[in-house]
Amino acid sequence: MLRADAFFATPASPALPSGVAPAGGAAPSAEFRTLHEEIVRYVRDGEGAGLEPMAGGAATTLGAEARALLLRSGGDAGATDDGADAEQRRRFVEQVAPLAREAGARLGVAPEILTAQAALESGWGQRPLRGADGSDSHNLFGIKAGTGYGGERIAAATTEVGAQGAYATVESFRRYDSAAESFRDVTRLLQTPRYRAVQGTGSDVGAYAAGLVQGGYATDPRYADKLQAVVRSLPRP
């Protein structure tokens, strides 16, 4: 799925006021929550509802800070360069490695591919999908919460790709209590018949990515290329 870029600011976001959205698990500021609410209202109820292009003058009715935050978080969803330095990437890989090994064993997929997918969707853990209160959903794979989903969920802005290009919209996403729960859930999803082409692909990242696209996991036509790029960029022991 196209990575769900909720509202965040990395340390390298000079366009945003300091303290808007702390990196990692720091408590969100009141300013972050205010901007979050403004963007959600804009995308859900205003000009951005459903079909607002992300380029060429998007978000023109938002305040300057909210506009910068929206464009920073959604302008190039799924980009492989998320501002994470080598140390941040190494820590992320170490944290998810046992989870990726367990999921990979169940799916017949090399664990580094699942690690790369989590890195792509979450910006190496630096761009967590957050709720309106700024809390981390621990949703490392950007899995949406459909009408039949009975677990906890959050509403957040994201970027999708359609016939008219990239556009901002608000979607409902699954919320977990931990990264481990996120890995378990994506494993269950990819074990369904819809993603049969993903199962047993081993270390063939091209076949794995093609299976994701075939199953409708991603709307970004460049998703397979981006996933392969992240696999190549994984820190090596």
Summary?
Keywords: Cell projection, Cilium, Flagellum, Hydrolase. This is Flagellar protein FlgJ. This protein has helices spanning 30-45, 64-74, 86-107, 111-122, 179-190, 205-214, 223-233, and strands at 52-53, 153-162, 165-174.
Describe the protein.
By secondary structure, the protein is mainly alpha-helical. It has one domain (30-233): Lysozyme, CATH 1.10.530.10. 40% of the residues lie in helices and 9% in strands. The protein has seven helices and three strands; from the N terminus they run αβαααββααα. It has a three-stranded antiparallel sheet. α3 crosses α5. The radius of gyration is 17 Å and the shape is globular. The model is unreliable at 2-27, 46-60 and 71-80 (pLDDT under 50).
Order of helices and strands: HEHHHEEHHH
Q: Which percent range describes the beta-strand content?
A: 5-15%
> What Rg is obtained from the alpha carbons, in whole angstroms?
17 Å
For the biggest β-sheet, the strand order reads 1-3-2
Query: What is the SS-derived class?
Result: mainly alpha
Estimate the global geometry from the Cα principal axes: globular
**Unreliable stretches, pLDDT < 50, 5 or more residues?**
2-27, 46-60, 71-80
Helix content: 25-40%
**CATH class category name:** Mainly Alpha
What is the residue-averaged pLDDT?
Answer: 74
